[in-house]
Amino acid sequence: MSVNERQVKHITPKSEDFSRWYQEIIQKAELADYAPMKGMMVIRPYGFAVWENIQHHLDRRIKATGHVNAYFPLFIPESFLQKEAEHVEGFSPEVAWVTAGGKEDLEERLAVRPTSEAIIGPMYAKWIRSWRDLPLLINQWANIVRWEKVTRPFLRTTEFLWQEGHTCHETAEEAEEETLRVLAMYREFVETELAIPVLSGRKTLREKFAGAQMTYALEALMSDGKALQMGTSHNLGQHFSKAFDIKFEDRRQKLQYVWQTSWGMTTRLVGALVMVHGDDAGLRFPPRVAPVQAVIVPISVGDWKTSVLPAARAAADALRAAGIRVLCDAREEATPGWKFAEHEMRGVPLRVEIGPRDVQAGQAVIVRRDTRAKEKAAFEALPVRVASLLDEVQKRLYAEADSFLAANIREARSFEEFREILEKDRGFIRGGWCGEGACEDTIKNATMATIRVIPLDETEPVSGGLCLACGREAKGRPYFARAY
Amino acid sequence: MSVNERQVKHITPKSEDFSRWYQEIIQKAELADYAPMKGMMVIRPYGFAVWENIQHHLDRRIKATGHVNAYFPLFIPESFLQKEAEHVEGFSPEVAWVTAGGKEDLEERLAVRPTSEAIIGPMYAKWIRSWRDLPLLINQWANIVRWEKVTRPFLRTTEFLWQEGHTCHETAEEAEEETLRVLAMYREFVETELAIPVLSGRKTLREKFAGAQMTYALEALMSDGKALQMGTSHNLGQHFSKAFDIKFEDRRQKLQYVWQTSWGMTTRLVGALVMVHGDDAGLRFPPRVAPVQAVIVPISVGDWKTSVLPAARAAADALRAAGIRVLCDAREEATPGWKFAEHEMRGVPLRVEIGPRDVQAGQAVIVRRDTRAKEKAAFEALPVRVASLLDEVQKRLYAEADSFLAANIREARSFEEFREILEKDRGFIRGGWCGEGACEDTIKNATMATIRVIPLDETEPVSGGLCLACGREAKGRPYFARAY
After folding, report:
1. pLDDT tens digits, residue range B428-463?
2. CB A42 to CB B71 under 8 A?
3. Are residues A314 and A229 part of one domain?
C-alpha cells in the first residue's frame, strides 16, 4: 500500500475504544486483512513474519522435548468423527463439510479438520503394536477450520493456523506427566518469547476439550481487562484409544489401550501480542518475535544520499551481521517524521536515527519504542548496544504486563462483590466455587464471566470459603474472567 | 512400529519391479502411509523431516531473492474461481467442494484451493495502488487439494503440501525476468540440495498451467527412465490482473494492469529423491536433506553397555556439536546386523560402527551408504572426517544421477526411431517438432510420451530437422519422455 494511503496518524486511541483500536491497528500495521468470505482473514507478510518467529521458537522447544513433526490429512470422513461421542457432539456444529469432488458427489461427507484426533486415531491404531513403540510423540503444524458465528482477526477466525501435538503412552501417569510437561513448556515459551505472563491451571468439565478427560490451559490478561486462552494441553485418557482401537502389547504381554494427550497453540497468539503490549501509538512487539527488531532511519536533509545513506547502510549491515533483524528505511517519498510514526505504529522495538551531524560525530541516536528513551551510541558500538537494548525492551515489556496482571487479580468474597469488580475493573477475579456446573452456569449467565482456570498448586487453603453462586462450602478457588 | 514388524530384508528389488519397490520402500522406511480415504496419504515423521529440510533450504532462497511469506484462505468462492475462464476450466474437474458449514448449507460453494491465484487476486486488487507498491513478491507455504483419479504417494495425491509464489510487476519484461529468475533458483536448489540434475525449459501450450501465458518447468529423470516434473514457474501475463482488476498507477500517472507470475514446488520432491537415488537396498538420501546424516551403531557384544556405549554416545555428542544430524542407535532388541540393514534401507548416508576393539584403539569404522566403502577414523578426527565424507556423498550422488541423465538423453531422427528408443531405453528423447498441438497429440496418443520441455537456449541450430509426427520442417527440438 502506498504511503499516502496509510494514514499513520489516524488510529482510534486504545483508551477510547479498545475493540476499534484492535481492528484498526491490525489493518493499518498490515498484520492481516479481511478475506472476501465471512469470517476468514489473510495473514499479510508483516503478520506472518510474527507467526514464523513464533513457529521457530515453539518448534525448537517441541523438538527439544522429544517430539517429531508429521502431516495428517486435511479431511476426516464423517464416520470417523462420530466414533467418539462427546467429540462429535462438540465439534460437528462447527464443521465445514466437503460433499463433492470434481463433478461427483461423495458417498460419505468429509469434515475439513476442526482438530485431528479422529484422523490420527486410525493411523496410530495401525502403527502401534508394542510398548516398544511408546511413547509416540508427534506434532503437526496445520490449518484448521471451525465454522464460527462471531469472528475477529487472529482471535477467532473460520480458518486458523496452529500446531497440534498428539502423543500415546503406556500408562495413565505418563500421559498426565506429558500433559503437564507441555503445559509448562507452553508457559515458559509464552513468558520468554512473547513477554506475556500467564495463569495456568485446569479447566472445568464444562470448559474442557470435547472428548478429553481433563484440559489444562494458560490464560493471559489483555490490556482491556478481558482474558484470552493462550494454549491448551489435554489429557485424553483412553477416550480416543477405545474409540479407535489403539492397543499395544504391554511389558507383560497383555493387550492394553494406550493413554493419550493432545495440545495446541494457534495464530491467536499474534492477537495476544497486539492486545497485551500495544498502546495508543500502535503495536509494541517484544524483540524476540518482532519481524523487524531495529529500523534505521537516515535523516533525509540536503545531500543525504551521499552524506548519510552510506553510513545508514553500513550500520544496517553491521547489525545484520550481528544477527539482528534490521531494516534500513531509505524511501525517498516519506519524511523522517512520517517514518518514525509508521515504525512506531508497526511496533519496531528500536529506531536508529542517523543524520548529517551524527555521521560527522561517528554516532547514531537510538530510540526505544517502549519507553521512548533516547541515547547516543558510537557506530562501532551499535551492534552490542542494540542487542543489549533489545534484551532490555523484552524484559521491560514482560515486567509491565506482569505488573498489570498482578494489579488485576482481585478477590471476591461474595457474588455482589464479584459483580462490582467486573463492572468497575474487569481482570481476573478469584473466588470460591462449590464444583457444580450449575453454579458455573449461574455465574456465567448473570455476568458473562467464566471460570478460566482452577490453579494446580493452591498455596493457600482450598476450602474455607463459600461458593459465590450457592453459598455452600467452596471446593476450589478458581480464576474467573470475561474472556475473548 | 516394533522391530519384528519391519521385515527390513523383504523389499522387492528395484530392478525387478520399480513401481512395487517404490510403494514398498515408502512404507517400510516409514516415509508415508496410506490414509483411510482414497488417494490421501499421511507423511510420517521420517518423511516429514525430509520435507522440513527441503523447506528450510528452499525458504532461505525464496527470502534471499526478496520474497516474503504470507497466508491466504484455504477456501475460494466458486464465483472467484470462474473469473479466469481457462483457469476454471483447467481446475474445476479437480476441485473438492465445501457445501455446508455446521448445520447450514452455504449459499455459494467454496472450492478447497487447488492453487491460490483466484483468492490472492482480489486481495492484490485491494492492496496495490501505485507503482511504488511494485514489485509485490509474496510466497505461501500451504496445503493444496486436487481430486485426482490415479494417485501414488508423494507423486500425485489428493492433498499435497507446497509453496506457491505470487508476484506482481510493473512491466511484462519484469514479470518474465522474475519467472526465469525463479526457474534458475529452483534449478540451483534442486541440483545443490537434492543432488538431482534437471532439464529446464518451457512447456507447450497444451501442457502449460491453466490461465498462464507461459509455463517454464524443470524435469528430472527417475531411475526407471520416466520423467518427473520437479517445479514450475508461470508467467501469467495480465490474464489474472484483468480478471481480478488488479491495477496500478504507473510512473506517468496512467492506470495499468499489473503483470504477474506464480510458481511452485511440492512434496513430490520427496518422491523424486526416492526414485532418483534409491537402490535395491532401499533409500539413499543426499546428506543435505537426509533426516539423519550419520547413524552410530555400537557393536553390542559382551558388556557393550559399559565398554562401548559411552564411547558411542560421546561420538554422537561430538558430531552433534559439529552441526551434524546424528542418531545413536542403542536399541537393545535389535542386533548390529539388523541395524545396519535398517539404516541402509532408510538411506542414512554414513554409518559409524564402534566395537570393543575400536574403543581400545580409539577409533571408529565409517561406512558410506553410496559406495559401501569403509574406512577407520580416530575418535578425535570423527567430526571433521564425517563432515567431509558427507560432502563427498552429496557430490557423488549428484555425479551418478548426472551420468545417468546424460546417458539417457537420445536423439530421434524419425518417429520409428522414437518408438524404438521408448520401447528399449525410455529416458528423454530429443527430436523435431513443427510446433503444432495436433502433432504433440499424435505422438502422445501413440506412445504416451509428451513434450516435457522446450529448451531455452538452443546451442545447436533450431531448424533443419523435421517434425517427428508430420514430417514438416521442425520449429523446435523439445525433450520428450513418458512421465509421472
Report:
1. 999 999 999 999 999 999 999 999 999 987 655 555
2. yes
3. no
pTM for the whole structure: 0.96
- Summarised one tens digit per residue, pLDDT across range B240-278 is 999 999 999 999 999 999 999 999 999 999 999 999 999
**CATH code for position B13:** 3.30.930.10
Of A33, A45, A109, the CB nearest to B69: A45
Distance CA B328, CA B319 (A): 10
Which of B389, B419, B436 is the endpoint of a domain? Answer: B389
Banded pLDDT at B1 (limits 50, 70, 90): very low
Number of structural domains chain B divides into = 3
pLDDT at A162 over 70: yes
**Based on the domain organization, do A306 and A338 belong to the same domain?**
yes
Q: What is the CATH number of the domain that holds B373?
A: 3.40.50.800
Phi-psi region of B132 (alpha: psi -120 to 50; beta: other; left: phi over 0): alpha
Asked if A255 and A213 sit in the same domain, the reply is yes
Residues B272, B298, single domain; the answer is no
What rounded mean pLDDT belongs to chain A? 95
**What DSSP assignment string belongs to B146-199?**
---SS-BTTTB-SEEEEEEEEEEESSHHHHHHHHHHHHHHHHHHHHHHS----E
> Is the CB of B95 less than 8 angstroms away from the CB of A110?
no
Which of B69, B80, B102 is opposite residue A93, by nearest beta carbon?
Answer: B102
Q: Give the range of the structural domain holding residue B145, as residue numbers without chain letter.
A: 3-277
For A284-391, list the strands marked E by DSSP.
294-298, 326-328, 350-354, 363-368, 374-378
The x, y and z cell numbers of residue A145, run together, are 477450520
- Degrees (nearest 5) of the Cα angle A45, A48, A53? 125
| Separation between Cα atoms, residue B428 and residue A328, nearest integer Å | 49
Is B378 buried (19+), middle (13-18) or exposed (0-12) by CB count in 10 A? Answer: exposed
Residue B179 sits in the same domain as residue B302? no
- Residue of A357, A295, A119 lying closest to B41 (CA atoms): A119
**Phi, psi dihedrals of residue A393, rounded to the nearest 5°:** -60, -45
- Report d(CA A432, CA A427) in Å as an integer: 16
B449 lies in the same domain as B352: no
B274 grid coordinates: 526416492
Position A1 pLDDT exceeds 50? no
3-class secondary structure, A215: strand
Is position A399 within any domain? no
Restricting to A residues 134-173, those with a Cβ less than 8 Å away from any Cβ of B are: 138, 142-143, 145, 147, 158-159, 161
A271 and A318 part of one domain: no
